[in-house]
């Protein structure tokens, strides 16, 4: 439990949440364009998404222990290559390796392990696991800032991370064991869903549900939220540094964003038992919209901190409530497939950093990007508020069940 949680903590701290900080120092020294820097972030996200089918395959062939060990080595190779980078092409390869290493370590292998290690308390253990990963996002930018400040070199940071990744791989090799041998890919994909699947069957088929307007709207909301979050991870440090002349406030803002996002996700599950999740989703989108608009106009680091607090809360509210709505609207029996389809749609988020970098190169500022993102969030908030409805499982006309009733009543997960 400790080792796999450490793995998620480590990959979160060293990739998505802290890469923006390292990129700021690398761009300044190597003279890269903002578009090139954004492309490296997109390579990380794209590699992570496209390699997600790989862990179940490897777990079936060589076991979870060796899969996670291999992930540590792949991650270390990406960090080592990054430490030797001089050209942007090499860094694209490095971030691609980081994305593949991320997938091999978390979260798919660990969720399977936790579900089979703790069959009676898997939901609680998986919740602790994701909490550990979220905390990595809080401390990651601060750790990177401390290493770069102490050593004066981003190359030292990448080298230290490479050494730590090898150590993590060795820990997985020593301490991880499969309680249940992986026999099929489906076995991995459905890990942790056993308790929900004993609920009454959903009246929906996956094909019918994915064509429903409510599912499309939830997919759209998740895609826009993930695009904005990914873009902020890539450019926030650079933007705040342009305001204050120092990268440290950007690292603090990034950590605040992760901290408030983690807290909000933790309480949204409990709130959704008392408040209509649709209202929470709309509130989260509105908060993110307001925060992004604020970032467009603020000229101080303090304004960036306020943005981070608002945006983190909105992110937590909207992301978890969208998942709760998928469960309530379409039932637990197909919830895993519907979440997987919605998550697949969020792969388009990798275009955010690249587009933001290109706009910054053309305009000299990230402010136009923030304005566009605020408009997108406002549009999604309005469409969600006025068009999202609890769907009916038949093409035949049926009475409206209302906003706050699920067709297949299910207990709402707490995390």
What does this structure look like?
The chain has 415 residues and is mostly helical. It has two domains: 1-192, Growth Hormone, Chain: A (Up-down Bundle); 199-415, MFS general substrate transporter like domains (Growth Hormone, Chain: A, Up-down Bundle), CATH 1.20.1250.20. It has helices spanning 2-14, 16-30, 34-50, 54-62, 64-83, 88-105, 108-117, 122-151, 154-175, 185-189, 194-197, 206-210, 213-244, 248-271, 277-297, 301-330, 335-345, 351-363, 367-387. The chain is globular and about 55 Å long. The model is unreliable at 195-199 and 395-415 (pLDDT under 50). Keywords: Membrane, Transmembrane, Transmembrane helix. This is MFS transporter. Residues 1-392 form the Major facilitator superfamily (MFS) profile domain.
Topology:
Blueprint: H1 2-14, H2 16-30, H3 34-50, H4 54-62, H5 64-83, H6 88-105, H7 108-117, H8 122-151, H9 154-175, H10 185-189, H11 194-197, H12 206-210, H13 213-244, H14 248-271, H15 277-297, H16 301-330, H17 335-345, H18 351-363, H19 367-387
Helix pairs in contact: 1-2, 1-8, 1-9, 2-3, 2-8, 2-13, 3-6, 3-18, 4-5, 5-6, 5-9, 7-8, 8-14, 13-14, 13-16, 13-17, 13-18, 13-19, 14-16, 15-16, 15-19
Domain Major facilitator superfamily (MFS) profile: 1-392
Transmembrane segments: 30-50, 62-82, 88-114, 126-150, 156-176, 215-236, 248-267, 279-299, 305-327, 339-360, 366-388
Protein name: MFS transporter
- Write down the overall mean pLDDT: 88
Radius of gyration: 21 Å
Number of strands: 0
Helical proportion?
A: over 70%
Top-tier CATH class of the largest domain: Mainly Alpha
CATH-level-2 architecture of the largest domain = Up-down Bundle
Question: Can you tell me the number of structural domains?
Answer: 2
The total count of helices amounts to 19
Secondary-structure element order, as H and E? Answer: HHHHHHHHHHHHHHHHHHH
| End-to-end CA span | 18 Å
In the CATH hierarchy, the third-tier topology of the largest domain is known as: Growth Hormone, Chain: A
Shape verdict: globular
Largest sheet: none
Low-confidence stretches: 195-199, 395-415
Estimate the strand proportion.
Answer: under 5%
Category by helix and strand content:
mainly alpha
CATH superfamily of the largest domain: MFS general substrate transporter like domains
């Amino acid at each position: 439990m400790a080792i796999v949680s450490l793995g998620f903590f480590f990959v979160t701290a060293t990739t998505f949440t802290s890469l923006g900080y390292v990129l700021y120092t690398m761009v300044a020294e190597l003279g890269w364009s903002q578009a090139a820097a954004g492309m490296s972030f997109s390579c990380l996200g794209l590699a992570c998404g496209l390699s997600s089918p790989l862990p179940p395959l490897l777990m079936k062939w060589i076991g979870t222990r060796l899969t996670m060990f291999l992930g540590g080595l792949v991650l270390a190779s990406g960090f080592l290559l990054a430490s030797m980078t001089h050209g942007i092409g090499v860094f694209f390869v490095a971030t691609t390796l980081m994305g593949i290493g991320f997938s091999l370590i978390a979260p798919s292998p660990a969720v399977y392990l936790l579900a089979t290690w703790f069959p009676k308390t898997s939901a609680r253990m998986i919740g602790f696991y994701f909490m550990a990963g979220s905390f990595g996002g809080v401390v990651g930018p601060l750790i990177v800032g401390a290493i770069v400040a102490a050593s004066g070199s981003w190359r030292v940071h990448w080298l230290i991370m490479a050494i730590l990744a090898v150590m993590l791989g060795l820990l997985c090799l020593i301490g991880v064991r499969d309680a249940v041998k992986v026999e099929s890919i489906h076995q991995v994909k459905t890990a942790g869903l056993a308790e929900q699947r004993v609920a009454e069957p959903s009246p929906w088929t996956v094909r019918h549900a994915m064509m429903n307007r409510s599912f499309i709207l939830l997919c759209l909301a998740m895609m826009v939220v993930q695009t904005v979050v990914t873009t902020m991870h890539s450019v926030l440090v650079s933007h705040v540094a342009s305001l204050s002349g120092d990268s440290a406030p950007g690292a603090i803002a990034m950590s605040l964003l992760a901290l408030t996002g983690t807290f909000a996700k933790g309480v949204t599950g409990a709130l959704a038992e008392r408040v209509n999740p649709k209202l929470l989703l709309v509130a989260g989108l509105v908060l993110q919209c307001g925060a992004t608009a604020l970032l467009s106009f603020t000229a101080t680091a303090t304004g960036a901190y306020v943005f981070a607090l608002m945006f983190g809360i909105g992110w937590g509210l909207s992301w978890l409530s969208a998942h709760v709505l998928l469960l309530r609207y379409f039932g637990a029996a197909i919830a895993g497939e519907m979440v997987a389809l919605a998550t697949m749609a969020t792969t388009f988020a990798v275009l955010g950093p690249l587009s933001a970098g290109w706009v910054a190169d053309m305009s000299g500022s990230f402010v136009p990007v923030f304005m566009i993102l605020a408009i997108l969030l406002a549009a999604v908030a309005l469409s969600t508020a006025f068009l999202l409805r609890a769907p009916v499982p038949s093409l035949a006309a049926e009475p409206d069940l209302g906003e706050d009733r699920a067709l297949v009543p299910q207990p709402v997960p707490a995390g």
